[in-house]
Amino acid sequence: MTYRWDGKNKEDIRQAAEALRHGQLVAFPTETVYGLGANGLDPLSVKAIYEAKGRPSDNPLILHIYDKNQAKALAREVTPLAEKIMDEFWPGPLTLVLPKDICVPDCISGGRDTVAIRMPSNILARTLLRMTRIPIAAPSANLSGKPSATCAEHVWQDFDGRIYGIIDGGVCQVGVESTVLDLTVEPPVILRPGAITAEMFKERLGLEVLQGGAKVGDKEIPKAPGMKYRHYAPKGKVLLAQGQGAELIDDIKEKIAHAQRPLGLMLSSETLADLGEIPQDVTVRDLGSINDLNKWAAELFEVLRYFDQKEMATIIAEGCAYEKIGIAVMNRLTKACGGGEKV
Ligand code: AMP
Ligand code: MG
Question: Does the Cβ of 35 fall within 6 Å of ligand 1?
Answer without folding.
Answer: no
